[in-house]
């Protein structure tokens, strides 16, 4: 991502969530009434103009992956909140809309969105242009991880590691060097027991993923790091996590695609997990 430019891949993910609202069958995997307004008045027309791309086999698979990772994370967040966790920290939040459409159970949370200042500024402009309000429990935490760590960023917001928190880290690790991934995981693992992280990772490229990798590389946001499930589990355990729950294709199908859907495919590879800070 360019220093002064909002992330194009984050914006692309937002369009996938919006397309889900327009193109897919009920019940939606992720109901997001804010998705289209956040993208502006022309968003629906832009999606319809590119409907062949959105409805292609690869477009549906990518859309399923993006909405599924948000749904899984929000389900795990709800379970954590029911156990008393009161802080939700999104690392690389992009144009995520959870804080703008939060359900009643989330209003007791402190929601902290951590991202590059350029992406965050673009998002806040879109919120204002859509006539939406920034909720009182939302904190924007601009960060440049080239110069500071996660603990420093959260410290500026008054977020210490003494209480448990739930972290969302979606669509980010593949763009980072493994040293940076490990440093962030260690910072999360320093939080109190009861803390959790939901994250995505990218497995070594297959044919479909290779084509997507070429596209995002052309956008200036190339893929850097890859993990097999065994490798990411080893990394998590070495950095302080336990109870690692992978959303395998089989689990995803049972939880979110039963009865079978005609619109979106079940994922073919495991790319999402949730892990707990070790006691």
Furnish the topology, listing elements before pairings.
Elements lengths: L7 H16 L11 H5 L3 H7 L1 H4 L2 H26 L4 E5 L18 E6 L1 H13 L8 E5 L7 H7 L9 E4 L8 H12 L6 E5 L6 H12 L10 H11 L1 E6 L2 H8 L15 E6 L2
Parallel strand pairs: 1-2, 1-4, 2-3, 4-5
Antiparallel strand pairs: 5-7, 6-7
Helix pairs in contact: 1-5
Which architecture name does CATH use? 3-Layer(aba) Sandwich
- CATH class, named Alpha Beta
Catalogue the unreliable spans.
none
* DSSP strand count: 7
Largest sheet: 7 strands, mixed
- For the record, give the distance between the C-alpha atoms at the N and C termini, rounded to a whole number: 36 Å
Tell me the fraction of residues in β-strands, as a range. Answer: 5-15%
Structurally, how many domains make up the residues?
Answer: 1
> H/E order of the elements?
HHHHHEEHEHEHEHHEHE
Q: Could you give the order of strands across the largest sheet? A: 3-2-1-4-5-7-6
Helix content: 40-55%
Which term fits the overall shape? globular
Q: Helix/strand-derived class? A: alpha/beta
Give a written overview of the molecule.
Helix 8 links the parallel strand 4 and strand 5. The chain has 279 residues and is of the alpha/beta class. 43% of the residues lie in helices and 13% in strands. Helix 1 (8-23) crosses helix 5 (57-82). It has a single domain, classed as 3-Layer(aba) Sandwich (Rossmann fold), CATH 3.40.50. The protein is built from 11 helices and 7 strands. The chain has a 7-stranded mixed β-sheet, sandwiched between helices.
